[in-house]
Structure formats: C-alpha cells, structure tokens
Amino acid sequence: MLMLAGVLGMWLVGAAPGAASDPEARVIEYLRANVRPGQRVVVSELVNTVFTAPEERAALDRLFKAFFRAPLVAAQHQERTGRPPTLAELERELGLRVPGAAAVLLAVMESDPRSPRFFERDAKTGEIRAVDVAAVRADPRFAGELERGLGSLEGRPRPALQVTGYDGRPVSLPAGQPQVIYFSFTDCAPCLQTAPVLHELAAARGVAVLALNADRLLELPYDDDARAAYARKLPGFVFAHATPQAVQAFGGVSVFPTLFFVGRDGTVVKQLVNRQERGALQAALHAAER
User: Which H or E run includes 7?
Assistant: First the structure.
C-alpha cells in the first residue's frame, strides 16, 4: 500500500470517519469529505491515523488496487466501445460496491498536481468525457497493469492450479485437450457480457472452461447462493474459488474477466482481458484447438 505514497500524499483535515456501517463506505465518505485540489493523499497516513480497524484497512487496500486499475479499465472501455465509461460502468467493472466511489477515486487522482491527466471530465456532472489512452499506456505506474494483462503468459506452459469447487472439493481440468481458464467475479459487468458467448462457443467445440470466481479475494458481498445461481446459467463451466496463489501464478490477475486459452499440449496460446466480442473468443478458441 505504501506505493501510493510515491504517487500521491494527503492533507487530513482531522474529521473522523463517517458512521456508515460498511468499511468501504466509511473510507469513501472520508475521502469525499477530505480530498482537496492540490493536496496529495498518502495511504500510510490513512492507515496509521484514520483507518486502524482491520476491516477498514482491508477496504482501503481494495480501493488502492482499484485506483491503479481504473485508468486501464477506462482505457480498454474507450478502445472497445469508442466512448469512455460512465462512472457507474467504471464502478461495476472495478467491482466497487459504494455508489459514487469511482468519482472519489478520480478526485484523488486529480488532487495530486504530479498525477497524469488521463481523463477529461464534465465540470457539472463529473462524468468522463474522454480517456487519454496513449497517456495510460505511456505511464510506467499504470502501463505495468496494462502490459501484465496482455499476453504475458502466451507461449508458456499453463501454471499449475490447486483450487476447490463451491462444494469444497478439489477441481481440475483433464490434460491433453483445449481448455480455458476464466477469472471473474459475481455480477462483474464485462463478465456477464462475455460469459454467455464463451459458454456457447466452448460448448459447441467441446472445450472445457474452468471459471475461477474471485468474490472472496475481492471481499465482495456475494454468498454461496448467489454464486450457485450464476453457475446454473452456465452449466458447462467448472466453477471454483480463485486463490491468491492462482492469481499470482497467472501473472497477478487484476482485471476481470481475464481469460487464458490453453492448447492440447498445455501451452497458453492466447490471453484476453476485459469484455470480449464473439470474434475474439472464436479466434482464441480456434488457436487452442490447433
């Protein structure tokens, strides 16, 4: 978390965190009230002086990670759709639960004079009017997320996996056949758009899909019933819980969905990040079948 101190620093006005019951909401409320233009945010100060409870620090860590993913997610949305994401879309794609959280994260970024100006925003509504995709790609602090998400495992053997299904039993996919490793979380907007198409195409080709759900890692408020309901819509997928080890083994997955297409010999032949169109999924599946 101390990385953020090198990008930002914070002026604390001394107000106590709000009374919201959700830790993430308390952090967002505090930032909304205290971030000022030209004043940098230092996460270590927040940890040491404001948010000392374990659940608050965990929420702050989740928001810290979302902060660094936001430019990448917005840039990919701009490239994919030809328009910037709305704040609500950005919140869904980042897995943010608190309404208005995306606007607060962008305000934190804009409060630091040294922070790149990736976004042009409407002065009245706060909505994003444009994303400078080239600037996101050129900045080493944010481009690392971009580069890590685009093909870092292609041409290499698929990492080993030890994961358990929703019933607590170990799950795996049979070797010697094409397969897809699919990282997502429940109610992830781009996942909800990608998964049905992937399910249709993979089922038609007989390609196995291991869907690794990151709800627990992201500390999202979905229970086993919600996950099971979603799994029933995709009966051809093998569902399991993503683990920290799995996330790191596959290059530090931080954008959802992330998909790895594996050939018959166990080599990763294609890696895709964020929502995917039918054509891209078809081409990746075809590459895995060769």
Answer: helix 3-7
- The rounded distance, in Å, linking the Cα atoms of 3 and 61 is 11
Give pLDDT, residue 14: 38
pLDDT of residue 139: 79
- C-alpha to C-alpha distance for 101 and 110, rounded to whole angstroms: 14
Distance between first and last Cα of the chain? 43
List of E strands, the chain = 119-121, 128-131, 163-164, 170-171, 179-184, 208-213, 237-241, 258-262, 268-273
pLDDT score at 199: 95
Beta strands in 51-152 (DSSP E): 119-121, 128-131
Residue at token pair 């979302």: 66
Whole-structure pTM value: 0.60
Q: Please list the ranges in the chain whose pLDDT falls under 70.
A: 1-20, 43-44, 48, 140-152
DSSP characters for 159-194? PP--EE-TTS-EE---TTS-EEEEEE-TT-HHHHHH
Residues 6 or more apart from 140 whose CB is under 8 A from it?
A: none
